[in-house]
From TrEMBL, chain B:
It is found in: Cell membrane. It is a multi-pass membrane protein. It comes from Falsiroseomonas oleicola. This is Branched-chain amino acid ABC transporter permease. The chain crosses the membrane at residues 28-46, 53-81, 101-120, 127-149, 175-195, 225-250, 262-287, 294-313. The keyword Ribosomal protein does not apply. Its main location: membrane. InterPro entries: ABC_transp_permease (IPR001851), LivM-like (IPR043428).
TrEMBL record, chain C:
It comes from Falsiroseomonas oleicola. The keyword Signal applies. It comes from the Bacteria. It holds the Pfam family Peripla_BP_6. This is ABC transporter substrate-binding protein.
Length: 295, 329, 414
């Protein structure tokens, strides 16, 4: 009995970390969605595709320009972010006066285009991207199992990025403008702040977060055009659970659901894909606005 | 909610409201043309292709009922369409039901699912509604993948078309076409009838201004739920009919890409128009038919059409024509 | 016609749709022309494996058949079924009803293959399947118009399960995609493992689709202390499992081997040898297997995407070559008149080609040939691009496929 329990505990410890890894991606992606939604009132359906772009750009930088992982971690979000800003300027900006649903439809179309183009260019079997060897130092090697250092890094990097984003929004002047513009755009505009430019930058930042997550994911998952589509529906459910009112809320919900999903994989693996949706249903029944939502 | 709602049709002026089955004169004319097309086309065009269009047209009309008249965008309609297909296929193949009963079974399952998902989803509106329906449909997808009766990824194959009322064999494409045509026309007219009933008027009131409708004493949630259930039921019928036409029911029809496709059809034809979904379904099915030889670019072109419609063409084909001719179609 | 004319005009604005409208009347057909339709995945998961490469292989078969010298013209068209049965069956119907297609080739994705199987039988044409895995094509749903050429699930399970145990992998743990296909693969393979004296220690069912992180399942497999982790899944799931097994060093020290139950050379290519090394898998064709396969690959020339032919593409070549031999033998008119007769002639003739060597087509429509168990080389062992496999064992043609009596095919029951 006790031996059994110890065995379970031994199993559980690494599962917590593995759950957090998935949670890290949920957190980064739902954070990006929340920022974009907060400012632009657009649900960015292309978020999964932009996540995928991040991974592909990392692959291209390595394969075509010889730029290694660390360079990609900085460059890929920038490049994809710039792409996002171009999309915002040329397309999304035209929709602000319309129903929010048009933003959803537009970005859905964008997601189809991006996925299709990458599928044409790179096939759909996926491309290899090796994790940089430096992470060997972080490897956790117990005799009964091995935990790659890269996974540990993903959790750390994602938590740090979420914290950084939160600090920028809550503690800096730019963040203050952003929050103000979210509440009362006309007033902020009247103070001489260029609100359209802030919207462009915000969308770029949200997209860059997705791309950042994509670069983190590249060494773990196969770099393929469908990798974002696999994630995005679950992330939507995470967003519904957390509610999109608070930045911190989306991060916490992301990590928590990753953890719950991770534990489900051990206890009842068959349910691990659906557990997030079940939680969503329960939350909707009890708190329709979401755990951290406002009204 | 935003300043502008998603529906585009202008309110009717009094003298327009008239005529046959609640159609305006222009609509009656358009309906006559549609009817003529349905009657004449199988003599020129390939019947299976036409039946596919009619099934998707009914599906898109059912979807349009929700977005066009209640203002709710569902991103999970594949759940009804696909489950309808599975249940019809199962009923026809395993239970040996006649085709009309099998299709009815598809409608019933669409109705039941509509109650379940609708009950959950109408708690939120707008973008949240879209995401919730998407997630709920994903659950249905998982269910279909697992449930033994759906045959997993092979789907239900070799579904017999059977004999209508146990008498008229439907094996020939040309015969089956008329059954599908009747199902489509019945569904189309039913939706039209509902929209022009007092119930439909309240639905529109909910879309335009929900708080006001509430203050007038309408229980708006009940209306939304009823619209959702109706839409789900008709989607189930459409899916069931499609399963009989092709003799298969598979995971494709419950996948979320199918939910996206029906949105695209309705968008191309014109959200909230009477004839838009039909035209949109015809355009998209024709396009897929044509593009089958081009392979990898299908999704890209569909995406481009999505983007183009949202940016420059929000009224859709029928909406633009109506605007040009200054009538509602 | 206002609305509907405008429908068409609307579509025409985006693309010349009128040409795509399926008119009812069939095209005029030349009596001495064979039309081959290659139907497969040109845009999704199986594109590299089949896709345009299959068409290229079919064209080579047409050239090499020498049928042109007999005054027969062969036309090859291709289409994308997008892995959707409704799209696939629409294409096949129109091909047969309108375009006068005589043979449908390839068709990966079991659901589309089964739908095509039914249709082709109904219309009495010929279906040469190379891409699909389901053994139902020669079992419960076998048809006098269908030949299932390259591989099937039974064969994969038997070769990987049985031959692996003989090679020393006695105890197994399965990571199974939680749907019918995965369950069947797990069950079949488990039976062969047990039949050879091995044991199955357990299995974990992973949600399908949507599982991207396999690490916790891999760890559960590792905890079982099994010698072989069987991957009863396909496509992206298999790729992710293998990739993460390498990341978590599941196979380090060579104590544990990974066995892929449905892995193709294109998957190995996308994984890279660093990750895929040590993986055990079964195929019926490998481009670098012998002089003949190398010569075939050479003749095929550069493939789209710079890949080497997969067994599915080789199967398209081999099946079309054999079909055209049968056509040459019985005459175009007879072959076009009845697909079932053409297939019967194919069954009566022994097969021989560079890709699969000598073989036969059985009464149930199963093409039989040897099957090979391969291990993926370590990067140090590989001598160049696409030098991926080393041969672990061969199962003879008589053993490699499910015995006719066990399939439950109605064609052979009498």
């Amino acid at each position: 009995m006790i031996e059994n329990l110890l065995f379970e505990l031994e199993m559980a410890a690494p599962q917590v970390i593995l759950g957090l890894v998935n949670g890290a991606f949920y957190a980064l992606l739902s954070l990006g969605l929340a920022i974009i939604f907060g400012m632009l009132n657009v649900i960015n359906f292309a978020h999964g595709a932009q996540f995928m772009m991040g991974a592909f750009v990392a692959w291209m930088l390595l394969a075509w320009a010889g730029i290694p992982y660390w360079g990609a971690l900085v460059l890929a979000p920038l490049l994809v972010g710039v792409f996002g800003m171009a999309v915002e300027r040329t397309m999304i900006a035209r929709l602000y006066k319309l129903d929010h649903l048009y933003g959803l439809l537009l970005t859905f179309g964008l997601a189809l285009i991006i996925e299709g183009v990458f599928r044409n260019g790179f096939g759909s079997s996926g491309l290899p991207y090796a994790p940089p060897p430096e992470f060997g130092a972080l490897d956790l090697d117990f005799d009964f199992l091995f935990l790659p250092g890269y996974r540990v890094w993903v959790v750390i990097a994602s938590a740090a990025m979420c914290l950084l984003t939160w600090l920028v929004i809550e503690k800096t002047k730019i963040g203050a403008y952003l929050r103000a513009a979210t509440e009362r755009p006309e007033l902020v505009q009247a103070f001489g702040i260029n609100v359209p430019r802030m919207m462009t930058l915000t969308y770029g930042a949200g997209v860059a977060l997705a791309a950042f997550a994509g670069v983190l994911a590249a060494p773990i998952y196969s770099v393929n055009p469908a990798m974002g589509a696999n994630f995005i529906i679950t992330v939507f459910a995470v967003v519904v659970i957390g509610g999109m009112g608070s930045i911190m809320g989306s991060v916490v919900t992301g990590f928590a659901l990753g953890l719950i999903e991770g534990m489900t994989r051990v206890i009842y693996p068959e349910a691990s894909a659906t557990v997030v949706f079940v939680i969503m249903a329960i939350v909707l029944l009890t708190r329709p606005a979401g755990l951290f939502g406002r009204g | 909610m935003a300043d502008t709602t998603i529906a585009v049709a202008a309110p009717l002026s009094a003298h327009e409201e008239a005529g046959f089955l609640g159609f305006t004169r222009a609509q009656a004319l358009a309906f006559g043309l549609l009817l003529a097309f349905v009657l004449v086309s199988p003599f020129f065009l390939y019947p299976v292709f036409l039946m596919k269009i009619l099934c998707f047209a009914l599906f898109a009309c059912a979807f349009n009922l929700l977005i066009g008249y209640v203002g709710l965008l569902s991103f999970g309609h594949a759940a009804f369409f696909g489950m309808g297909g599975y249940v019809t296929a199962h009923a026809a193949k395993v239970w040996g039901l006649t085709p009309e009963l099998a299709i009815l079974a598809g409608g019933v399952v669409g109705c039941v699912l509509g109650v379940g998902i609708g009950w959950l989803a109408i708690r939120r509106s707008g973008i949240y509604f879209a995401m919730i329906t998407l997630a709920a449909a994903q659950m249905v997808y998982f269910f279909c993948l697992q449930a033994p009766f759906t045959g997993g990824e092979d789907g239900i194959q070799q579904v017999p078309r059977g004999a209508l009322f146990g008498v008229i064999p439907l094996g020939a494409d040309f015969t089956l076409y008329w059954v599908v045509a009747v199902v489509f026309l019945a569904g189309f007219l039913l939706i039209h009838r509902i929209v022009h009933s007092p119930f439909g008027q309240v639905m529109k009131a909910v879309r335009e201004n929900e708080p006001r409708a509430t203050s007038l004493g309408y229980r708006t949630d009940d209306y939304k739920l009823m619209a959702f259930v109706l839409s789900g039921t008709l989607s189930g019928v459409a899916g069931g009919t499609k399963a009989l036409v092709f003799g298969i029911a598979t995971l494709t029809d419950v996948n979320w890409t199918m939910s996206g496709e029906v949105v695209l059809m309705t968008l191309v034809g014109g959200l909230g128009t009477v004839f838009g979904p039909v035209v949109g379904a015809a355009v998209i099915v024709t396009m897929q038919n044509y593009l089958a030889e081009f392979g990898a670019w299908v999704t890209v072109i569909q995406g481009v059409i999505f983007v183009a419609c949202v940016l420059a063409f929000r009224r859709g084909v029928v909406g633009e024509i109506g605007n040009l001719l200054k009538v509602r179609l | 016609m206002t609305i509907n004319r405008r429908t068409l005009l609307g579509a025409a604005a985006a693309l010349p749709a009128l040409g795509g409208l399926p008119f009812r009347s069939a095209r005029a057909q030349a009596a001495n022309t064979i039309r081959i339709g290659v139907l497969n995945d040109q845009s999704g998961t199986y594109r590299d494996l089949s896709g345009p490469g299959s068409t290229q292989a079919v064209q080579l078969a047409v050239q090499e058949s020498g049928i042109a010298a007999k005054g027969v013209t062969v036309e090859v068209v291709q289409a994308d079924h997008q892995n959707r049965p409704d799209v696939g069956s629409t294409v096949v119907r129109q091909w047969i009803d309108r375009d006068g297609i005589d043979v449908v080739v390839d068709v990966p994705t079991s659901s589309v293959a089964l739908a095509t199987n039914t249709l082709v039988r109904e219309k009495n044409k010929v279906f040469l399947n190379s891409g699909a895995a389901t053994s139902d094509l020669t079992g419960a749903q076998c048809s006098p118009n269908t030949v299932h050429w390259t591989y099937d699930t039974w064969m994969l399970a038997q070769s990987t399960g049985g031959a692996m145990v003989r090679a020393g992998g006695k105890s197994w743990f399965f990571i199974t995609a939680d749907y019918a296909f995965g369950h069947a693969l797990e069950r079949d393979t488990g039976n062969f493992v047990k039949a050879q004296g091995g044991e199955v220690l357990g299995a974990v069912r992973t949600p399908f689709p949507g599982t991207t992180d396999f690490s916790s399942y891999l760890q559960q497999a590792q905890r079982s202390r099994a010698q072989v982790i069987g991957l009863a899944n396909a496509g992206g799931d298999t790729i992710n499992s293998i990739k993460q097994a390498a990341e978590f060093r599941i196979t380090r020290g060579g104590r544990v081997k990974l066995a892929g139950l449905l892995v193709f050379i294109t998957d190995v290519n996308s994984l890279g040898l660093e990750v895929a090394q040590g993986l055990v898998l079964s195929e019926t064709f490998y481009w670098d297997l012998n002089d003949k396969t190398r010569a075939f690959t050479q003749r095929l020339g550069a493939m789209p995407g710079n890949i080497k032919p997969s067994m599915v593409q080789a199967g398209c070549y081999s099946s079309v070559l054999h079909y055209l031999k049968a056509v040459g033998d019985m005459g175009v008119a007879a072959a076009k008149a009845s697909g079932a007769d053409a297939v019967a002639r194919m069954k009566a003739m022994p097969t021989s080609d560079d890709a699969f060597g000598e073989g036969t087509v059985r009464a149930d429509g199963r093409k039989v040939h040897p099957c090979y168990l391969f291990e993926v080389k370590a990067p140090g062992e590989s001598r160049g691009a696409w030098d991926y496999y080393k041969l672990l064992g061969t199962t003879g043609a008589d053993q490699a496929f499910r015995p006719v009596a066990d399939g439950g095919c109605a064609l052979v029951r009498s």
